[in-house]
């Protein structure tokens, strides 16, 4: 046996012994605490594996059995608490954000260390670097500030319409390009090519790596961090070789667009309305430590793109799927748009006069939320909630929506609990049904308007507390105009088979950290020759 092999075996053995001791210590402490209810675990390993056929049924039964808004399990000595209602989520993560804003290090080894995605502000620990990035976000992405991005949002949406007219069968490709163009300009001031843009390709490769690495529980190294020291040539160390590939893509996604923005600034061609311009010309040079602040800005801009791209893409995919499956709502929305816009395409002057479009978007975000469970919050102090002890270091998950997923481990399963915040039948009637009209009411003048009495799904969709998504205002506006523009110009219908019969897609999703509709086809055709002309005319405004 070689020295390296012996060292690896020792590392793994020590890690397993440490986990057993940690669980034993946690168990002894648990007997002195009143934890939230949950199933008993196995000795030493806790709830390392739970019944999952499917997982959400088991977890839903637990919520009913224990009659509690919060449920607890233990995995190798780590407390995991899941909040199953908006009230519990808000009580802990909003009202006590000072002690519930940290992120875990355990369970993230593959993603943050081996793949180098630790620069993501969304995954970063609660520290000074994170707080400095957050300040930059608040300054540049508050509701009034994001209005300066409306011109690029309009250009990207209109380009999407032209691409749908040209090649409707490639709608997924067009959606990704439109969102990528908008984000790269808003963040970096980079105006990309209409197709085959090298910077978008670089960013796309990075995103693919990020999404793959973020499937928590897929890699044993997340459960046994000591495995990160295993060399890539060692048998069974395929995760090291994969991490090396993903890290190269993620590094490029971080540095390539940032360096392009710096080059534009040096040449005097960086647009005034992008975030990079303000941060590179003001925040960085005026910092006490400019080199450190440049690192903060680089990470903040990279996160702005990475966090915004796949989330908006998934939401738009769900929009197309919903319009195929529920055409009556599509037709009603189009009638409202026709009356409000009177022969033109919608723009932001219509933002407050198209409540039906807002209702459709809100229902999209509620029906199949992009991130079913928000990212883990970690408590930094001991706490008590509803009579239950929540020790320092507890992982807290807000259950935005339960999902059905065959599990690989309880660590993975912990991300997929029951009792939906956005599918709560006490809040939303027939929650599994797509119905945007649940958000509407008729006012005293007989006109439709958004009903303020109905819970806005944005209260849960974008996270909680100090970790709430800072780009939520830009994301919502971009989605709103894309939805309004597509509805104004096109009809979205079921695809046809070789015999001319309708093909109804299954409303099924591919599950991971984020969810995406499984591939489906549809027919996208201009609503009229006038609509086709309107789409063609948008090229003149570029």
TrEMBL record:
<keyword id="KW-1133">Transmembrane helix</keyword>
<dbReference type="GO" id="GO:0016020">
    <property type="term" value="C:membrane"/>
</dbReference>
<protein>
    <recommendedName>
        <fullName>Cytochrome P450</fullName>
    </recommendedName>
</protein>
<keyword id="KW-0349">Heme</keyword>
<dbReference type="InterPro" id="IPR017972">
    <property type="entry name" value="Cyt_P450_CS"/>
</dbReference>
<keyword id="KW-0560">Oxidoreductase</keyword>
<dbReference type="GO" id="GO:0004497">
    <property type="term" value="F:monooxygenase activity"/>
</dbReference>
<keyword id="KW-0408">Iron</keyword>
<feature type="binding site" description="axial binding residue">
    <location>
        <position position="469"/>
    </location>
    <ligand>
        <name>heme</name>
    </ligand>
</feature>
<keyword id="KW-0812">Transmembrane</keyword>
<keyword id="KW-0503">Monooxygenase</keyword>
<dbReference type="InterPro" id="IPR050364">
    <property type="entry name" value="Cytochrome_P450_fung"/>
</dbReference>
<dbReference type="GO" id="GO:0016705">
    <property type="term" value="F:oxidoreductase activity, acting on paired donors, with incorporation or reduction of molecular oxygen"/>
</dbReference>
<dbReference type="InterPro" id="IPR002401">
    <property type="entry name" value="Cyt_P450_E_grp-I"/>
</dbReference>
<comment type="pathway">
    <text>Secondary metabolite biosynthesis.</text>
</comment>
<keyword id="KW-0472">Membrane</keyword>
<dbReference type="InterPro" id="IPR036396">
    <property type="entry name" value="Cyt_P450_sf"/>
</dbReference>
<dbReference type="GO" id="GO:0005506">
    <property type="term" value="F:iron ion binding"/>
</dbReference>
<dbReference type="Pfam" id="PF00067">
    <property type="entry name" value="p450"/>
</dbReference>
<dbReference type="InterPro" id="IPR001128">
    <property type="entry name" value="Cyt_P450"/>
</dbReference>
<comment type="similarity">
    <text>Belongs to the cytochrome P450 family.</text>
</comment>
<dbReference type="GO" id="GO:0020037">
    <property type="term" value="F:heme binding"/>
</dbReference>
<keyword id="KW-0479">Metal-binding</keyword>
């Amino acid at each position: 046996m070689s020295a390296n092999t012996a060292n690896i075996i020792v590392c793994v053995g020590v890690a397993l012994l440490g986990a057993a001791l940690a669980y034993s210590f946690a168990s002894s402490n648990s007997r002195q605490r009143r934890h939230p209810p949950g199933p008993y675990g196995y000795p030493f390993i806790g709830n390392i594996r739970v019944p999952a056929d499917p997982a959400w049924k088991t977890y839903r039964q637990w919520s009913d059995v224990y009659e509690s808004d919060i449920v607890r399990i233990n995995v190798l000595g780590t407390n995991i608490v899941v909040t199953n209602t908006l009230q519990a989520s808000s009580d802990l993560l909003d009202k006590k954000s000072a002690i519930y804003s940290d992120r875990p290090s355990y369970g993230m080894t593959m993603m943050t260390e081996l793949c180098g995605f630790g620069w993501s502000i969304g995954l970063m620990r609660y520290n000074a670097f994170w707080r400095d990035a957050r300040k930059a976000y608040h300054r540049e992405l508050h509701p009034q500030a994001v209005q300066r991005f409306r011109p690029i949002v309009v250009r990207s949406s209109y380009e999407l319409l032209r691409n749908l007219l040209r090649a409707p069968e490639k709608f997924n490709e067009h959606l990704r390009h439109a969102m990528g163009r908008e984000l790269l300009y808003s963040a970096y001031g980079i105006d990309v090519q209409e197709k085959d843009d090298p910077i978008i390709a670089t960013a796309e490769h990075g995103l693919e790596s990020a999404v793959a690495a973020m499937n928590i529980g897929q890699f044993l190294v997340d459960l046994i961090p000591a495995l990160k020291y295993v060399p890539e040539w060692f048998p069974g160390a395929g995760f090291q070789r994969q991490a090396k590939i993903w890290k190269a893509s993620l590094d490029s996604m971080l540095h390539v667009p940032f360096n392009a923005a710096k080059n534009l600034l040096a040449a005097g061609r960086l647009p005034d309305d992008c975030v990079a311009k303000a941060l590179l010309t003001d925040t960085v040079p005026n910092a006490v430590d400019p080199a450190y602040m440049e690192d903060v800005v680089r990470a903040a801009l990279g996160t702005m793109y990475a966090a915004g791209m796949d989330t908006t893409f998934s939401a738009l995919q769900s929009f197309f799927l919903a319009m195929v499956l529920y055409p009556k709502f599509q037709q009603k929305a189009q009638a409202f748009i026709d009356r409000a816009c009177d022969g033109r395409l919608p723009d932001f002057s219509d933002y407050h006069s198209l409540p039906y479009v807002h209702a459709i978007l809100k229902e999209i975000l509620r029906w199949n939320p992009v991130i079913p469970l928000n990212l883990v919050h970690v408590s930094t102090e001991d706490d008590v909630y509803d009579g239950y002890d929540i020790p320092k270091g507890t992982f807290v998950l807000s259950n935005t929506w339960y999902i059905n997923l065959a599990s690989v481990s309880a660590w993975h399963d912990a991300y997929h609990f029951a009792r939906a915040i956005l599918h709560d039948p006490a809040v939303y009637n027939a929650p599994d049904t797509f119905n945007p009209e649940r958000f509407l009411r008729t006012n005293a003048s007989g006109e439709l308007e958004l009903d303020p009495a109905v819970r806005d799904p944005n209260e849960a969709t974008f996270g909680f507390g100090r970790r709430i998504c800072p780009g939520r205002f830009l994301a919502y506006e971009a989605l709103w105009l894309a939805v309004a523009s597509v509805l104004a110009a096109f009809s979205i219908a079921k695809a046809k088979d070789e015999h001319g019969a309708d093909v109804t897609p299954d409303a099924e999703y591919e599950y991971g950290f984020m969810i995406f509709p499984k591939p489906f086809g549809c027919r996208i055709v201009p609503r009229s020759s006038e609509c086709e002309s309107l789409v063609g005319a948008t090229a003149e405004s570029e």
